[in-house]
Prior knowledge:
By secondary structure, this protein is α/β, with parallel strands linked by helices. It is built from 13 helices and nine strands.
Amino acid sequence: MPPWMPEDTVAAAIREAAQRLAASSDTARLDAEVLMAHALGATRSELLLRHMGGPVPAGYEALVMRRIAHEPVAYIVGEQEFFGLPFAVSSDVLIPRGDSEVLVETALAARPRARRILDCGTGSGALLLAVLSQLPEAHGIGIDRSPGALAVARANAQSLGLAERTALVEADWHVPCWADALGGPFDLILANPPYVEDDAPLDRSVRAFEPAGALFSGPEGLDDYRILIPQLRGLLAPSGLALVEIGHAQADAVSAIGHAAGLSTQLYRDLANRPRVLGFW
Ligand code: GLN
């Protein structure tokens, strides 16, 4: 039995759900609205303008229960906006974070004429497809070791009208010769590899629901950088640039990995002024 009565309105059900969600979410009211819009098949503005006095859809309570169990809203509704674009997401991919938009902005500012782009660990395709959406002459390859992630990225390339300029390839930088068939070199390389320490204290909604293979990278979170960064030089065109997302406390350690590999580095910060991206060339 839903905790609201059949004669209740959408507005009353949202109010009640927001109270129950407050224990598991910092954004309880917003979550309650987004889940209601999804249950109604409406946008959030349609919900607020047209549906608030209407009847509560049957599926709403099940969605609220999933959120109370800490499942991220993006997985429940199957979508996350990134760089102003709608991306399909599933539990096979990391949910694109607003913090990663600085990597896209840096790429567009630093290499506005890039033609050949490689995205290492593409997941939903968010980084690659956001960059391609702004560079109509460019072609991109997204690689991932997860077939489930590649299926999500392919769906996004299609829905964003970028499939003709995007190749999505199963590959793993831990495997020798993984890049031989990709046809480099590249003007721009993007990467948001796993970089979380294995025992880091993470929100339950992250640790229990997002793919471990996209998050964790050894005791210091540096294992993937140690494998991937020394391989960048061989993948970059002479004037190419690689942009790699880092955790905010990892700038020195990851720069040192680049310097040891003979690369120059530059640090870029996110909107909160924290270290977020390292450039390598
Ligand atoms: N930014 C993500 C988080 O803190 C981690 C992303 C990653 O490991 N690539 O949850």
